[in-house]
Write a structure and sequence with these properties.
The chain has helices spanning 2-17, 54-57, 79-85, 106-111, 114-122, 140-145, 154-168, 177-185, 202-205, 239-249, 312-339, 347-354, 356-362, 366-371, 393-398, and strands spanning 30-41, 44-52, 69-76, 93-95, 101-105, 131-135, 192-200, 218-229, 232-237, 255-260, 267-284, 287-303, 374-383. With 399 residues, it is an alpha/beta fold. The strands form 2 sheets. Strands 1, 2, 3, 4, 5, 6, 7, 8 and 9 form a 9-stranded mixed β-sheet that branches. A 4-stranded mixed β-sheet has the order 10-11-12-13. The radius of gyration is 26 Å and the shape is globular. The chain starts with a helix and ends with a helix.
Length: 399
């Protein structure tokens, strides 16, 4: 009897955990959304969904649609209300678990985005592994309607381009939901998001003909970083300032730069292969200060001037010029942030780690303290390799 009782209990427990997929969703009933956009629409929010047309992206097409994606838009007092309104236009349930990109229109970003982000963060169906960007000078609705070559699904194109640009060029930042919400919720640290612009004729970019041209009528390009204060966009960082931000944060994985040759007006290109930044806070005479130590390794990639690269003194001189240029780039972005009283670097956290008692005293007035903060920058640059040849072809032809 005891054995039968144990078996009965085990079967009962298994029945509870193996009761089937009670909350399953059939693929034929879902409209898979890969991109979502938020815009301001009078007193409401305009939500745009970029939905995959499965027949167009499948390996064996059924030619049921003419484009790989369809966009649907609806307005509502809340973003989730607008999404539910889309069911009056879509034959399937809007399903956002495969979301790749979230686009915020610039007008909405300047008015504040805490309300729309609250709805996204509460939705249990939405994962947090998508990237958030800002439509610079345009709306999220227009961005999500542009068709892109190479990558048939535009949201995937934006996702992969952002990752590639961050790894190889470094004026962009890939920010996911959790990181962005953490920065928004921190009263002493501000957030940045990468900006996206539409180049060309946006109307023509919505047609399938945009995919049939070697040079599309319209395309999407990342451009600068949006600087937020609390939940509002207050300024834009240009390309150089955006790179400076990533140097301060130690985010640079690889990028290219150039400098003017020491003895003439030609240029010399350098590939940054390694970068490391150490940030330390300290208190001097009761005032907070920051020390930034930046170490950079780079290779010479292209030489367009007469220069003797085999001379050790020449290499030392190039390293000094690179150090001066990089210091200037970092100082410029720090000044831009100070002007807006927006600590996008986390300097406050460094001060808190170094002097908790002082931080407690100045925390409530940190934006003013940050505007007057002294930042000491120390840069060390080392040139590792000259490439597959030593001196430049210009120097060799001269010889």
């Amino acid at each position: 009897m005891k054995k039968l009782g144990c078996i009965f209990c085990i079967l009962t427990l298994l029945g509870c955990v193996l009761s089937g997929c009670w909350d399953r969703h059939e693929l034929n009933d879902l409209a898979i959304t890969v991109g979502v956009g938020f815009d301001k629409s009078d007193k409401e929010f305009l939500v745009t969904s970029q939905i995959v047309n499965p027949n167009e992206v499948a390996a064996k097409k059924g030619s049921g649609y003419s484009t790989p994606i369809t966009t649907l838009s609806a307005s509502g007092v809340s973003t989730l209300e607008a999404v539910r309104k889309m069911t009056t236009m879509a034959p399937r349930k809007i399903f956002a678990s495969h979301l790749r990109i979230l686009v915020i229109g610039e007008e909405l970003a300047r008015h504040g985005i805490s309300k729309v982000m609250d709805g996204v963060s509460r939705d249990h169906e939405v994962r947090s592994d998508f990237y958030i960007i800002v439509a610079k000078g345009t709306t999220a609705n227009k961005v999500l309607r542009i068709l892109t070559p190479i990558e048939r699904i535009p949201a995937n194109k934006m996702f992969k381009t952002l990752e590639t640009s961050e790894k190889s060029w470094s004026p962009t930042v890939s920010v996911q939901l959790d990181r962005f919400l953490t920065n928004l919720g921190d009263p002493t640290r501000e957030a940045v998001l990468t900006g996206l612009i539409i180049k060309g004729d946006s109307k023509k970019g919505e047609s399938k003909g945009n995919l049939n041209l070697t040079s599309p009528e319209a395309f999407l390009e990342y451009s600068g970083l949006a600087l937020f204060k609390k939940d509002k966009l207050v300024d834009w960082l240009n390309e150089e300032e955006s790179k400076g931000y990533n140097y301060v944060m130690g985010n640079v994985k690889s990028t290219m730069g150039h400098l003017t040759c020491p003895q003439e007006n030609g240029t010399l290109s350098l590939e940054i292969i390694r970068e490391k930044t150490k940030m330390k806070g300290k208190i001097v005479n009761g005032k907070p200060e920051i020390n930034l130590s930046v170490y950079v390794e780079q290779n010479i990639s292209e030489v367009q001037c007469e220069i003797d690269l085999l001379d050790p003194q020449t290499i030392t001189e190039l390293e000094q010029i690179a150090q001066k240029n990089l210091t200037s780039v970092m100082q410029n972005v720090i000044q831009k942030a100070k002007k807006n009283k927006a600590d996008i670097f986390g300097f406050g956290e460094a001060i808190e780690d170094a002097a908790p008692k002082t931080w407690t005293r100045i925390k409530s007035n940190w934006e003013n303290e940050f505007a007057d903060l002294k930042v000491h920058i120390s840069v060390e640059v080392q040139i590792r390799r000259l490439g597959t040849i030593n001196n430049s072809l210009i120097e060799r032809s001269k010889e």
